[in-house]
Amino acid sequence: MSGTGTRHEDRQRPTVGEGLVSNRLRRAAGQLGGVLAMYEAGRHPAEILDQIAAVRGALDAVALAILDEHAATCDRQALDEESRRAVTDLTTTVRRYVHAR
Fold first, then answer.
1. Confidence of residue 48 (pLDDT cuts 50, 70, 90)
2. Phi, psi torsion values for 66, nearest 5 degrees
3. CB of 14 closer than 8 Å to CB of 70
4. For the whole model, what pTM was predicted?
């Protein structure tokens, strides 16, 4: 990558609470395993779809937590007020998209 930007590999991974992301991802993985077991057991499709929606919600919450931390880092690094407003606008737009799905 050329230019003055920092490559993603060079950045420290943001910390979103102590173990928050890892715990939530493990919980979502467990939920997904439960969905597979429900499907293989022949459970009613409505029950399976409800659980899929729960897994998606859990993953969306993790994604938003990571986004918020990253946006806060970008906001702290922004050189001017216009850049900070752009970061805020971006996170607001992404949140709106996630909640609209």
1. very high
2. -65, -45
3. yes
4. 0.65
